[in-house]
Amino acid sequence: MPSASELPAAPRHRLGGLFRAVAILAVAAAVLSFPSWAPNPYILSAGVVVLNYAVLSTSWNFVGGFTGYISLGHGALAGLGGYATGLLVVRAGLPSFVALAAATLLVAAFAVPVGYAALRVRGASFVIVSIALVLILLLVFQSWASFTGGSRGLVVPRPFPGLLRPEHHRVFFYLFAALLAVALLVWWLVDRSRFGLGLKAIREDEDKAESLGTPTFGYKLVVFVVSAGFTGLAGGLYALWFGDLDPVFQFSILTGSYLVLMALLGGVRQLFGPLVGALVVGIGLEYFKVEFGNTPLHLAATGLLLALVVMFMPDGVLPALGALVDRFLRPAQSSIREVTAAELRDRGSGPPEGDRPADPPASVPVGAPDGRSAEERS
Amino acid sequence: MPSGALLFQSVILGLLLGGLYALLAAGLTLYFGIMRVVMIAHSAFLILAAYLAWWSHARLGVDPLLSMVVTVPLFFGLGVLLQRLLLARLRPVTLTMMSVLLTFAIAVLIEGLLGYAFSGTQRRIQLGYGSASLGLFGARIAVVKLIAFGLAAVALLTLYLLLKRTRFGWALRATIQHPDAARLIGIDTDRIAGFGFGVGLATAAVGGTALALDTTIYPSLHWHWIGPLMAIIVVGGLGSVPGAAVAAMLLGLVQSLLQIPLGTTWAQTVFYLALFATLAFRPQGFFGGRLAQRF
Amino acid sequence: MTGQPSGPPGPATSGTGSPATTGAGSPATTGPTSPVAGGTGSPPTSGTGSLATSGLTKAFGGVTALDAATVEFRHGQVNALIGPNGSGKTTFFNCVTGMIRPDSGRTSYRGADITRRSPHAIARAGIGRTFQLCRVFPRMSALDNVLAAARPDGFWSQLRGARRRVELDRARGWLTRLGIEHLADVEARNMSWGQQKLLELAGVLMSGPETVLLDEPAGGVNPALLDRIGALVRELNAEGRTFVIVEHNMDLVMSISDHVVVFDRGRPIAEGPPAVIRSDERVLGAYLGV
């Protein structure tokens, strides 16, 4: 009986794992071969934009997915990475990729005091600070025109001046793909580490995690800084690719909400959730931009979609799909949770929680606490 | 060195502005008290009310103040619906984060719809008394600013009386302070919470109308307001209406004074600096606010 | 600092807390400290080696939840903290564990002042606790719930996999010992109340505390499970862990505790062995409102 929940789980994992592996390989192959079958440079550049979104929302998910803290300000961190890279190239004359590395570190360092203010108290203060971050950076970068170029924008020289436009897109497509791979890898590593388990404990119940000895503030701060670093790096890479920065677009509250929408839609607890969300929302955004141009209805649709996801699908599509796949693969068996519920019903009777009427007398004979389990196991 | 008259004028303007801030922050404080919800859409509703005031003046030729006859009950109803149909249905465990996201989504939705309905063009109400001003010890104060302040003062006073003198106010305060106990003594806390949201949103209707009198409005204007309002409720100590009012007056005053040497744009940063400093060094706020610890 | 007070709890362990891996700083390991003879309500002054508060005060608004509470719990004993509802017991726990900052007063543990430390630092100093309304991580499996409580040894170890053999064995050991090993892969939210209580306890024990504060372990628990928890507490105590238990169930209190402290209106009004407390008229007065 004790192992009832373990036995049926194994084949499910194997089949599910196989399915996962195939799916991942297929997506990876599709992504990597995209530049060779993209019909024209415009589509290729749209691919770069979508990959950029995928990197950004995966970076966002370091905070949002593990700790449950939702940031609406990651767009601003990306913008800061972009501006830092651009300014380091233009004003300090650094080589493009040196500037990119420096900008990444700058954004990560910038995230320390911001995180300090935002994460000391738990709850909504983090969201508020993240929104304030967008607003204040927009204010500063627009007003401090002598340094940032203000509303006239900032032109960032291309790192590979010799390349033609399609080649330029292709190179950056692979750069973004590589960055995405690194971000996913790090997310996966954190996910299976003790650090990750601590972060998830924070998401579940922060007071409880703290009372078990997890330094919650430190954990949150570290993961926020990591997240900011990746976001800044992606923003900087975007600046090098796009070559023209405007504060209104770099520090847009909308970018941040796109990232949240993508991650939430895909599923914040899943490694590939933000990527899936970015593919759906990013492609949708690009499509609508081509079809309808930039209209206020973009905003309205984003708002509506976000509200719908929050209300009806806060866990995202991937978990829903996973449940579906499960049902196909194991039609006879219902989900593991239901097995347990049934098992509980078998064992239990009597209110208010007659969960274990049978074992208590036998189970803890004082002095020989462990004998029972040894017996039961054999 | 600015002249005495200029300084005096800035002080007066700062206090008038602070009054408006106080009204708007009161709504936010109320929501937070009732449900621990940070209502990002509050300022979007504010702009919506401002647009309705502008529209009724420009299209129907009615005095913008009269639009409140419609907008205040309308917003009250919307507030009740918002709480009962949307916020109350979120999972309690993730309420804090999801409610912020949901109200954020509503703000974006309102902004998009406003842009669709009225275009992104900047709008301004042209009133007969729009350019009139009063001279007071060398300071010139626009009449519309006085009207706006007057509206805010009347609305705040009404809110105060509503909370302190009526049975509904008593039930609402009980709900805020101790929902479980309130339920035990027979208060229908769900209903009361819905009405509380209605009252909060009604303050946005008044505030939006007051705002429309004297400001150029455009759909994305609400982002300029949400930052300062957040700063006010955090500095005031969340959950404390008087705290928010004091913080509002104080920050309005400081902003107004800083405009003399810095100009309007940079003077806005005072709110963000106050927000960051408060959260970093005194997260419970400066003027009480028992609930702030859980913020 | 991160000493593991007791060895792995699994089937192999026999009674005594082993002097396993003592990190720096952990004063004395946790072998069962000599049980103070079950004696009289001794003056709360005796030396270190105990959890003690002096003048602990906390007010919420106008309500004084703790009123200059001075208490000492002796090491190696099962201490009970009883008192009528609202007498400040849970607030006391919250202050001691750093979840609430007291307005004034001090808390010391084994001679060190822990008043202003953060909750996780206090936990790492060796004080574990459960919550009145049992708190587990709802969307994590039982096994992960327990693993999440494992104490990392050093900074870089936190980047290691969460499911390493050593921890996995310890975690499974605790689940086994509490009789819920068959639920290892079940998400905590799908477990019954009683199972969640056991799981919470397993997590706290995994974090390796020398002193365990239990907030109403008997709350909402059926009689059979109650006996089990009582027996478990005695066992764990015999292995060297100190307990402080807030409890309303007098049968449980009287049967398992060595020392009882009675709270009323935010301060202790009586203390002593169960037999003495049972007949103390101040206690009756406090409960009956005389």
Descriptive overview:
The complex is a heterotrimer of chains A (378), B (295) and C (290). In chain A, strands 1-2 form a two-stranded antiparallel sheet. Chain A is globular, with a radius of gyration of 24 Å. Chain A is mainly α and 378 residues long. Chain A contains 18 helices and two strands. Helix content of chain B is 72%, strand content 3%. Chain B has helices spanning 4-35, 42-58, 68-86, 95-118, 143-165, 167-177, 179-184, 189-214, 222-236, 241-262, 264-267, 269-281, and strands spanning 133-136, 139-142. Chain B has a two-stranded antiparallel ribbon with strand order 1-2. The termini of chain B are far apart. The model of chain B is unreliable at 291-295 (pLDDT under 50). With 290 residues, chain C is α/β, with parallel strands linked by helices. Chain C has two domains: 49-126 and 209-290, P-loop containing nucleotide triphosphate hydrolases (Rossmann fold, 3-Layer(aba) Sandwich); 138-208, no CATH class. Chain C has nine helices and ten strands. Chains A and C meet through α8, α9, α16, α17 and α18 of A and α2, α5 and α6 of C.
Features:
heterotrimer, A: 378 residues, mainly alpha, 2 strands, 1% strand, globular, B: 295 residues, ABC transporter involved in vitamin B12 uptake, BtuC, disordered C terminus, cell membrane (chain A)
Strand percent estimate of chain C? 15-25%
Biggest sheet character of chain A: 2 strands, antiparallel
- Unreliable stretches of chain C: 1-48
The multimeric state of the shown protein is: heterotrimer
Mean pLDDT, all residues of chain A: 82
Compute the number of structural domains of chain C.
Answer: 2
**SS class of chain C:** alpha/beta
- The counted number of beta strands of chain C is 10
Backbone shape of chain C? globular
- Rg of chain A is 24 Å
Global morphology of chain A: globular
